[in-house]
Amino acid sequence: MVCCTPVITSNISSLPEVAGNAAILVNPKNVGETTDGMNIIVQDGGGSDRASQP
Length: 54
Fold this sequence. Notes:
Elements: E1 8-10, H1 15-19, E2 24-26, H2 31-43, H3 48-51
Parallel strand pairs: 1-2
């Protein structure tokens, strides 16, 4: 995230606290959510807006 790299991470455990709004949070047991997260990154040109947020 510091390097403005798009991040998709799990929405369970402590990861949402660490990633905050800078990552796309998905349910790791839901393939559809993971696919949606990847599509957001592809359609957003790499998700640079989200990745650059602290």
